[in-house]
Amino acid sequence: MKHIYLIIIVLLMASPVHTDEHTVSSPGNIIQVQFKLENGVPYYNVSRFGIEIINKSALGFILRGAPDLKDGFFLKESTQSYHDETWTQLWGEKKQIRNHYNEMRVDLIENGPLSREISIVFRVYDDGLGFRYEIPEQPNIDQIKIMDELTEFALTGDHESWWIGAYQWNRFEYLYENTPLSDIDTVHTHFTMRTKDGLYLSIHEAALVNYSTMVLERIHGYTLKANLFPWADGVKVRTKTPMITPWRTIQISDDPGGLITSYLILNLNEPSKIEDTSWIDPGKYVGIWWEMHIDKSTWGSGPNHGATTENAKRYIDFAAAHGFDHVLVEGWNVGWDGDWYADGVVFDFTKPYPDFDLEGVAQYALSKGVRLMGHHETSANILNYEEQMEDAFALYEKLGVRAVKTGYVGHGTEIVWYDENGKPNHEWHHGQFMVEHHQRVVELAAKHKILLNVHEGVKDTGLRRTWPNLMTREVARGQEYNAWGGDGGNPPDHVVIIPFTRNLSGPFDYTPGIVELFFDEYRPDNRINSTLAKELALYVIIHSPLQMAADLPENYEKNLDVFQFIKDVPVDWSETKVLHASIGNYVTIVRKDQNSDDWYLGSITDENGRLLKAPLSFLDPGRKYIAAIHRDGNDADWIENPYDIIIEEKIVDCSMILTLRLATSGGQAIRFTPIND
Amino acid sequence: MKHIYLIIIVLLMASPVHTDEHTVSSPGNIIQVQFKLENGVPYYNVSRFGIEIINKSALGFILRGAPDLKDGFFLKESTQSYHDETWTQLWGEKKQIRNHYNEMRVDLIENGPLSREISIVFRVYDDGLGFRYEIPEQPNIDQIKIMDELTEFALTGDHESWWIGAYQWNRFEYLYENTPLSDIDTVHTHFTMRTKDGLYLSIHEAALVNYSTMVLERIHGYTLKANLFPWADGVKVRTKTPMITPWRTIQISDDPGGLITSYLILNLNEPSKIEDTSWIDPGKYVGIWWEMHIDKSTWGSGPNHGATTENAKRYIDFAAAHGFDHVLVEGWNVGWDGDWYADGVVFDFTKPYPDFDLEGVAQYALSKGVRLMGHHETSANILNYEEQMEDAFALYEKLGVRAVKTGYVGHGTEIVWYDENGKPNHEWHHGQFMVEHHQRVVELAAKHKILLNVHEGVKDTGLRRTWPNLMTREVARGQEYNAWGGDGGNPPDHVVIIPFTRNLSGPFDYTPGIVELFFDEYRPDNRINSTLAKELALYVIIHSPLQMAADLPENYEKNLDVFQFIKDVPVDWSETKVLHASIGNYVTIVRKDQNSDDWYLGSITDENGRLLKAPLSFLDPGRKYIAAIHRDGNDADWIENPYDIIIEEKIVDCSMILTLRLATSGGQAIRFTPIND
User: Fold this and answer.
1) Average pLDDT over every residue of A327-347
2) Where does A19-267 sit in CATH, by number?
3) Which fold has domain B485-677?
4) pTM
5) Among residues A379, A586, B220, B647, which one has the fewest Cβ atoms lying within 10 Å of its Cβ?
C-alpha cells in the first residue's frame, strides 16, 4: 500500500499544470505543429524533424470594451483534415500549384458566463505553415476592437536576418539590413532568417484583406511578437463577428532557393472572386516616367512637361513598333504643380493638363494596337481619391485603358483623411484604414476591368490569387533610387537580397531595363550600379506580370541588340526553378514561358564577381536549344566597365552545364529556344 | 616654371618606394595574382574579379648559418606561360582531369656580393592558385637550414572558418571547430573559410615530399603565416640546392561544393613515377579490426586474441562469399602485449603470434580469391620500423599480400628515433623527419608492389598522383571514435564538415559501414551517431580506393539487405558532382562508377533533418534507370529510431527531381543502374 500512496503523491506533484496538447504534422512528416492549452492559456510551437524551431509561443487578443481573449479557455473540439489539390494560376511564376497540407482546427470556449468561442486553424505544409484566428458569430461578442494581437514567434537562436525596419516614414522603401536577430526592434515582413544549422525561415502573412498589417516586434531574447499598425485612436483593428484574421505564415527551407519556390502564401488565399477573367492579361509597358526621374522633363506643367500629347504619341509609336502592350503616362492630370505631396486636395483624376489630349492619346494608342496605362497619384489623400475614383476608373474604362498605376506618395509617416466632421485623421500607410482602402480600389478596378499596379501601397500577401487584376506593386526600393537616391542609389546587393525578402510576397514593379547606365547630361552624380547584362537578367529574377522597359525610347534605339532580350522576355511563366541561391550574394533563376517551350535564365551577383555552374537539366530531354546568351564581357566590371557585354548563341541540351561568369555586380540573361525537331 | 618644379617635387615625394609589379591572371580571368618587389622585398597578393582576397603578403625565408632570403632582391626576369592539358587518373574520384592554368615565374637575384638567386612560381587556375619557391644550384648557396618560412596569407576579413588546431598531441584526430578566423591560433590545413560575401576559400599545400608540414599561424588581425613543424634542434627544414618547396595552395569557389570538385592539388603534383601500374587496383576490404575497438577481442595475445588463424579464415570465407578483395588482420604480430604505444622497441614485423599461421592464412586467402591485407603498427618507433621494413614488405610480397595498413600510434606529441650515438630524438609527427620517412615507405612499398593505407600519418597533399600505390590514409577522426571515444564519439556533423576540410586533401579510410549501430554487449555507453541510411551514404560521400566494410561478418549476415549496397558500391569513379553543399549542415554527392554506367548518390545531414531537391540531370539523357533507394523511414531519428530504413526501387530518368528526406543525422544512398535500351 505504501507504494501506491507514493505513486499518487508523485502524480499529483508532477501535474500541477493542466495541459491539453494536440499535434499536427505536415503531409511528409517534415513539420510538426503543437497546440497546447496550459491552465487555459493557448500556446503553439513548431518543430521540424522533431527539433523545435518555434518554441512555446503565446496566442490571443487584448480587446477594448470587452474582456481579453487570452486565457481561461477549455477545448471544445480539435479536428484534423487532409487536403491535396492542384490549382491553376491565371498568371504568375508557375502555372500548376499544389496545395497539400494537413489542417488542425482547435475550437476553444471561454470558462465563465460569457462562454465566448474562438478557433485557431493551423495549416501545415512540408515547406512551412500558416495559422489564423476565427471568431464565429455568437451571443456574447459582436463588435470587436482589437488593442493587441498576442501572437508570438519564439525563435530558437540569434539567427542571421535580413530586414527593413517598420514605423519609418518612407513605407517599405529601404535598403535591407543584414544583422543578427537580436539587433532588430520592429521589422516589416517578409522577415527572412538563416539559422546556424543552415535552415532558412521567413515570417509573413497571407490574405490581408480587412485587418491591420502585421510587423514583428522583438519583445525579448529571440522572441518576436505580432505588432499591428494602430488607427489614430490606438485601436489596432475594428471588426465584428464572424471574423477571421490574416494567416500568420512561416516558410521554411534547407536551401534559400526553396523560399523562392514556396507557394504557401498563394495557397492560403482564396480562389479568384472574378468570374470572367478573359480581360486579365499580363503584359509589358513603356512610359513617360524615367525621363522625369532623371530630370529630363517634369511631372508638372511648363516648358519641360513630360506628359504632352506629342511625347505620349512618340512613346506609343515606339511601343507599337516594338510590341509593347501599354504606355504609361505620368503627370498627365492637374495637380502636379507645387507641393503636391503635402496632403492637400490637389489632384483631379479626370482633368488632364491642357497640353495633354487624354482622349486623343488613348484613341491614338488603340489605333496602334497599344493601350494607354492610366496613372492615379493620390498624394496619400485618400478621401480626395475615394471621392473621385469611381469617375476616374469609369473614364479610363471608357477610353479603353486596361491598366492603372496608382501612387500613394505622402510627405511623412501618415495618410490623411477627414472624418464626417471635417476633422483630419492621420493614419499609417499600413494600418487597417489603408488595407481596406486598397481593397475598395481593387474591387472597383475589377468592376471596370482595370488591372492594378500599386506603388507606395501595402505589402503583397497573395491577394492576387483572389483578385487577379491586382497584378503587381512596388512596396520596396525600386529603380528610381538609382536616378536620384542621393545615397548612391541601390547598391549592387540590393536586388540580390530582394528575391529572398520582398519578392517572396509577390510581383514587384521594380522597373528594370535601364540600358544607358549613366545619364550625366541630366543627373551626373547618379548611375545604375550594375553591368548592362545584370540589368537584363533582372527581367527573369524579378517577376512582374506588368513589366516595364523603363528606359527612354531613344536609349533603346541606340541599343537594339540588348533591347531584343527585353522585347522577347515573357512576363507570365509556367514554371520557375532556382539554380543558385545565396542571400545577398548571388541568385540564378530559370523560368519557362507560359506561351511557348522557351526557357529563360537570369543570374545576378552583388559587388563580387562569381563563377557558377548551371546544369541545364530543366530543358526537355532529347531536344536541342539555341541559347541566346547575354553575358558580361571578360573585362566587365560594374564600376569601370559596365557596358562590356557579349551576346552570342550556342546550341545546348539538357545534359550540358553552363559556366556562368558574372562580373562584379554583373549578371547573365539567356533565352533558350528549342530547335524544331 | 614654378609649376614644373612643383610637379617634380610631388613625383619625388610620391615615389619614395621603388615597386616592380607583375600580374598573372587565370585562364578565364577569374583570379589575378600580383607579385611585387617593394624596395627589394618580395610580396604577393590575390584578387578575384579585381577584388582583393589576399592582401599584400610577405614571401621569403629565415636561414641558419647564412643571410636570410627575404629582402635586397631585384628582378632578373619574369616570364609567363599558358598550360592546358587533360590527364587520366589511374584511380580516383574523377577519371579525366583538366590542368588549365597560367604560370608566372619570377626569378630574383640578391643585391650584394652573394648574388643568390631564388625563384617564385605562381600557377593560377580559375578555381585557385598554387605557388612555390625554387632555389637553383648556384655558387653561394648549397646546404640550407630553413629556420622560418615567411609566407603570409593576409586575409581580408574575419571569415567564418572550420579547423583543427595544430601542435596537439593527437595528430589530426580532432573534431572540427567552427569559429571566426580571429579565434584561431595555429591550425592544420585544409583550413576552410567562408567570407561574408559568400566566397569559400581553403588553404593547403601540394606535393609535400621532403619538407616540413605547413600549419597556419595567425600572426595579427586576419593575417596567417606559414608555420613549419621544427626538428628537435629547432631547424624547420634541412635541404640543399636545387630545392623546391611544396606548393602553397588556395582553393576558391562561390559554392562550397566547388571546393570538393577542385583538382588543383592533384594538378600541382607530378605525374606517376611508377611505370608499371598494372598491379595497382582499388578494392574493398573487411577485417579483424572493429571487434577489437568494441572490446569483443584483443590485439594482444590471450584468450580473446582477435588475430587467430581460425578467426582470420572466418573473415576470409566471408570476404570470398561477398566479393571483397582484402582481409585486414590487425594484432597478428608479436609486440601488442603490454604498453605497446609507449615508444619501446616492441614490434616485430615478421614474427606472427603463435596462434596466427601467417603463411597458412595468406595461402588460404589466395586459394579463395582474396588477399590478406598486411598491418604494420609502428607505435611511432621509426628506427625500429625502418630497420625491419625492407624484410617486412618483402615477406608480404612473397605471401601474395597486395596492400598494407600502417599505423603510427605514439603516446604523445612526438615520434622518437635514435641518432647514431643512440641518443633519442623527439620529432613531431608532421615534421620533415616524418615526411621523409613516409616517402621512404611509399617508395619501398612500390618496389614490393604493395598498396598503402596509412593511419596516423601526415596529411595528404596529392602525392597519390605521383605514387598511385599510396591509396588512402586516415589522418582525421575516424569511425573508431564511435566505439570508444568517451566524449560521445563523432557527433552528427563531423562527417558533414569532413567533405569540405579533411577530404579536400584526398582519400580517407574512415571505415564506414557499421550496420549494428549499438554494441551494448561490449560497449554499452557508445554507439554510432547516425541512422543506418547515413552509414550507407558515407560510401559515396567519403572516397577511398581501399574502402572498408568495417562491421563484423555476423552483423552483415543479419543485415543482408543493407549489406547489398555496401557490396555493390564502387571505390573507383569516373565522375563526381556535388548536388547540395552546406558546410557542417548537409552535402549530396553523386559519382559515376569507373567500370559501368551506374551512378551512385550519397546525401547526409547533421543533427537536423533536411528536405532537399536532387535533380537527376547527371544521368544520361534518354535512358531509364532503376534507382535502388536506401532512405530514412518516415519516423527515423538518429537518437530514438536509427534503424528505420526503407529500401525501394523506382524507375527514373534525367528529367526527374528526387526529393531527399533526410532524418536527423540521417542520409540517403542510391544506386542508379541503366535499364538496357
Assistant:
1) 87
2) 2.70.98.10
3) TIM Barrel (3.20.20)
4) 0.94
5) B220
